[in-house]
Amino acid sequence: MVRGIHIRLLVAVAALAVAALPSAATASQLIDRNATGVQFAVNGKGEAMITYRAAGKLRRVLVWGAINARFPSPLARQVRLKKDYAGGWGKYRRLYWRGFRNLCRPYDGPKLVYFVTGCKAPDGSYWALQSWQTPLPDLGFAPWLPEQRAWELHVSHWTGPLAQLEVHTDWVYAGRFHSLFGRLTYRGKPVYGYRTTRFGAPLDGFGRLLYLDTFNSRYGPGWRRENAFVAHNPTGMFCYGFYPFDPTKKGYVHPPGQTAVRGPGNGARYRITVNGPGLTPDVMWTGPGLRDYDPKNPADVAYAHRQDALLDSMLTVDRQCRQH
Fold first, then answer.
1. What's the pTM?
2. How close are the terminal C-alpha atoms of the chain, in Å?
């Protein structure tokens, strides 16, 4: 018999992230939305100049003052870049961008998802820009508002390893539903936050939303946003069940008139994308889905037992992913 996971679901309203959660959900990494013609320059003072076009205007953003990430602590704040959207005028009171000396060397760092551009700074640190559709609506809905289609441009500045996503598939509730479980870590330590809204959106700079997409599901062909949730305090673990969801409850948004139950969003493949802690790059996990559970299939039974044992070994003090 397959044992299940009792999910305490922390649902994030991803479609509202643009308007309601820019500082919490994306910390200091968010630069702009729907940027084109992006160029990147770094000088010898630890400053970066980002030049691009958005909403029909040429924009220059000077960023500086932070690197890597702090480990979660209730007594500290996560690192944040300072940003000057006047191209340095706000900091220096002159047209700083005109004399900005680019000392960027070719990027030779780790491979990044959604990579736009990047470089290696004179001090050996890395800068990078990534762009992806963070605010897609949950529950497989196709975007119906312009802000839901936005491609967010994120900047990162770091040395050393990136955050790590460990993800595993399983079935829950005697095989009735598909599920995922895993953990988010940085330099071997869990990533988590301390406060969320009642719908599970982070309210501090340490928490990170994990955006779950499903491929070729009952929502339709291709990738669709299934949901978003945070890793647990203090383990960095998470668990998610692919259940039917009522789009009119728990803070979801939905297109006008589309109120029927959605899901389960079981897919042929899954991916989870998350903003890296602090100023580290955004990372992604992708993996295959499972077939429906067959209690008469010895391979399914054996796989379920292995996954139950693995989850047992990972739980430690975590009480939000209970087995039964």
1. 0.90
2. 10
